Amino acid sequence: MTKADIVNEIADQTGLTKTDTALVVEGMLKSISNALVNGKNIEIRGFGRFKVKQRAPRTARNPRTGDAVPIPARKVPIWQPSDELKERVSRTGF
Fold first, then answer.
1. Which strand (E) or helix (H) includes residue 29?
2. Which residue from 20, 42, 52, 89 has the least number of CB within 10 angstroms?
């Protein structure tokens, strides 16, 4: 599902124009992104949590040469689904 698909579905459900819906969806995504960049966590009850996780430095291997490649510490965004969402997905039979 793409952002355009989400906009279309919300516009159909709410009766808002696609332009207005696109602005709302884009605003929500920007708000989530900005919060993560600023080190904040976001919790949407019944859906999940977005947060930033610190990854430790590590040594990897180049698969072609076998040489050690150092990978520095870094911050990465992660998403954790809520228990409610996990339960709903596990009940689907597709």
1. helix 18-37
2. 89
> Is the per-residue pLDDT at 93 higher than 80?
no
CATH number at residue 52: 4.10.520.10
**pLDDT tens digits along 16-74:** 999 999 999 999 999 999 999 999 999 999 999 999 999 999 999 999 999 999 999 99
pLDDT per residue over 18-32, tens digit each?
999 999 999 999 999
Both 54 and 29 in one domain: the answer is no
Domain that holds residue 32: 1-39
pTM of the model: 0.78
77 — alpha (psi -120 to 50), left (phi > 0) or beta? beta
| Distance between first and last Cα of the chain | 16
Query: How far is residue 36 CA from its own chain's centroid?
Result: 10
